[in-house]
Amino acid sequence: MLTIKECLEQILTQTLVEISGVSDAKGLVIYASRPEFGDYQANGVMAVARQLRQNPRELATKVVSALKTDGLIERAEVAGPGFINLFLNTQMLATKAADCLAAPETLILPANRPQTIVVDYSSPNLAKEMHVGHLRGTIIGDSIVRILEALGHCVIRQNHVGDWGTQFGMLIAHMNSLSADEGQNENAVASNLSDLEGFYRAAKQRFDAEPAFADEARAYVVKLQQGDPECLAAWQRFIDESLRHCEEVYELLSVSLRRSDLRAESFYNNDLPEIVKELSNKELLTESDGAQCVFLEEFTGKDGSPLPVIIQKSDGGYLYASTDLAAIRYRSDKLGADRVLYVVDARQSLHFQQVFAVARAAGFVRQDCQLEHIAYGTMMGEDGKPFKTRSGDTVKLRELLDESVTRALNLVTEKNPQLADNEKQLISRTVGIAAVKYSDLSKNRTSDYIFDWSSMLSFEGNTAPYLLYAYARIQSVLRRLQEESVVPGRTIDLLVPEERTLAIKILQFAELVRQLGEDCYPNQLCLYLYELSGLFMKFYESCPIMKAGADVRASRLALAQLTAETLKKGLNLLGIEPLQRM
User: Fold this and answer.
1) What one-character DSSP code corresponds to residue 331?
2) Rounded-to-5 percentages of helix, strand, coil across the chain
3) 65, 189, 229, 424 from 48: Cα distances, Å
C-alpha cells in the first residue's frame, strides 16, 4: 500500500516520463514549505528541462495539463521557474482520516517489501554496571527496532555484550582472594558483588598496583579460555550479576531487549580460528610485527601509509574486528539478514568501515545484505566534555534515571499537590524516564548534545512533559464530553483550514514512519509529534467543540481522538507510554 506522498510521486513521475520521454525522470515530490504553495510540491521538472534544454515552466505546464489526479489532487499549479504546487482533494483527506479513526492500525502502513533486519544495539560491557555512555545506543536502537517492527519487518535484536577478556581474569582473581580472606563466606562475597561497579574498581586498582595479582589474573584468563570448569563457573556468576543490573535498567527504560537477544562475544569464540584460516586461504592476511592483519588499499593514514585491520595479535589473542567478522558471517548466513544495523558510537566509524570492507572482500556477507553503521554522538556535560559526576567518575545510568524520577516527583508535587501519592508516583516515574529518553531521542543522533535538566523537564517546547501533557489534555476533553454523552463521530468533515491542516499532518505520519525505517533518525519523529501537538492546540483554540452543532461537534471530537491515537503510536515508537491524566 502506498502513502499519499508515494502516490503523488508515482503520478508525477509517470506523467513527467510520458510528457518528456525521459525514462528515468523523477517527480521529486516534497512537502510544501508554505500553505500558499499547496500541500506538496513537485520539483522534478527542473532537472528534466535542463537535460532536454527546454523551458522548465513550459514543460511544467504540459505536465500539469496531463495529470491524472485519481481523486487525490484537487488542483495543481505551476509556480516560479517550473515548480508544481499540489493541492490535495479535501474530501479524500476527510475519508482517509475517518478510515484511520475506524482502524487506528492503518496510521502506519506496512513496508512494501518486508525484510529480515538484524539490529545490534545496547552492547554493554559485562562486569560493570551500565553508565550514561550506554544510554544513547540502548534507546536509539530500541526506537529503531520498534519502528521497523511497526513497518512489518522481521526484526532480530542482538545484544553484542562484551563478556570475554582480561577483565574477567582480574575479577575472578579478586573474587577468589575475597573468598579466601573471608573464610569462604558466601554472603560476604555476594554482598561485594551487589555493588558491581565498586567490585570492578577494587579489582582494577589491585591489577594496576600489585604485579603478583596481575600475573594471577592473566593466568585465570588462560584457564578461562581453556575451559577450566571453576573459572567458567566464576565467569558465569559475573555474567549473571551483570545481566541482572542491565535488565533492571532495561525494565526501567521500557527497552524491549530480552535475555534471549543476547549474543555475547563469547558466542563467537570458537569461530575465530576459522575466521583467521579463511582470511589466510583467501590471501588477505599479512603478518605485521607478529600480528595477523588485513590491509585494504582504500584505508590509509594521513601520511599515506596503509591502515591495518588487526585480526590476531602476536600472542595469539583476538580483537574486536575478529569477533565482528564472525558476527557478520553469522548474521548474514545463519540469520538470513537483508540488513544489519549497528547502533554504535560514532567514534567507531573507521572500525566499522574497515570491518565491513574486510567482510565483503572475504565473502563473509552475502552481496544482497546491507551493513549499516547507525552512528550516534556523545552526551556532554555543561562543560562540553563527556557527562561525568563532579568527582570525575562515570555516571551510573540507574542513578541518572532515579535522579530524573525524583526531580519529576518534585515538579508534579509542586504543580498538583492535591494528587494522591500513588498517582504522583506513577506520573513522576513516567515523566522522569520519558524526559531522559525524549531529550536524547529528540537530538540528531549523529550530534553531541549538552545534558540539561531544566530543558529536559520543561512543560514548554519539544520535550516529553509537553507531549505527555498534550496527550493527557486530549484525553481529558474526551472524558469530559463523554460524561455528557457526547461521543466522537464516525465521519470527519474538514470545514475550516485548521481542521484540514491537522488531518494532513496526521495522514503524513505513515510517510514519516516509512522514512524512519530507511534512515533511522528518531529525532524526526520527535519533531513530528511536537508539530502535531502544536497544530492540535491551534485547532482546539480555533474550532470550538461544545459550542458547535451536533454534527460538527462529533466530527471535531473524532479528529481530536485521531490526534490522540497518532500521538500515542508515535510515543510508543519512542518507547514511551503516555498517561491518561497529568
Assistant:
1) I
2) 60, 15, 30
3) 17, 74, 70, 60
Cα–Cα nearest to 374, from 108, 117, 114: 117
Handedness of CA 284, 364, 224, 177 (dihedral sign): positive
Return the pLDDT at 510: 98
CATH class of the domain at 4-88 = alpha beta
Tell the residue number behind the cell numbers 555516571, with chain if given. Answer: 395
Q: What is the pLDDT of residues 130-168, one digit of tens each?
A: 889 899 999 999 999 999 999 999 999 999 998 877 788
Which stretches within 397-549 are classed as H helix? 397-415, 421-441, 453-456, 464-483, 497-507, 509-519, 522-542
Distances (CA, A) of 27 to 24, 39, 83: 10, 15, 10
What is d(CA 225, CA 269) in angstroms, rounded to the nearest whole number? 9
Provide the H-helix boundaries in 285-332: 320-329
Unique residue bearing C-alpha cell 522534478: 44
Closest CA to 268 of 215, 310, 328: 328
Instruction: Tell me which residue has cell 566464576.
Output: 234
Which residue type is seen at 283?
E
In the block, cell 524516564 appears at: 433
Task: State phi, psi for 303 to the nearest 5 degrees.
Answer: -90, 5
Write down the domain spans for the chain. Answer: 4-88, 166-256, 268-376
What are the backbone dihedrals phi and psi of residue 331, each rounded to the nearest 5 degrees, phi first?
-70, -35
CA distance 562 to 388: 42
- The three grid cell numbers given for residue 190, joined into one nine-digit string: 555476594
Give the separation between CA 312 and CA 297, rounded to whole angstroms: 20
Q: Which of 160, 110, 458 is nearest to 320 (CA)?
A: 160
pLDDT tens digits along 442-477: 999 999 999 889 899 998 999 999 999 999 999 998
In the numeric block, which cell numbers belong to residue 123?
Answer: 552492547
Nearest Cα residue to 429 out of 455, 403, 460, 399: 403
pTM: 0.92
DSSP-assigned beta bridge partners for residue 42: 29, 84
CA distance linking residue 390 with residue 141, whole number of Å? 29
Cell of 324: 565482528
Q: What angle do CA 462, 347, 127 make, to 5 degrees?
A: 95
Is residue 187 very low, low, confident or very high in pLDDT (cuts 50, 70, 90)? low
The DSSP bridge partners found for residue 293 are 286, 310
Residue 64 main-chain phi, psi, to 5 deg = -60, -40
| Cα–Cα distance, 306 to 420 (Å, whole number) | 66
Measured distance CA(276)–CA(557) in Å, rounded: 65
Q: Tell me, what amino acid is at 277?
A: K
288 contacts: CB under 8 Å, gap ≥ 6: 308
Residues 6+ apart with CB under 8 A from 280: 292
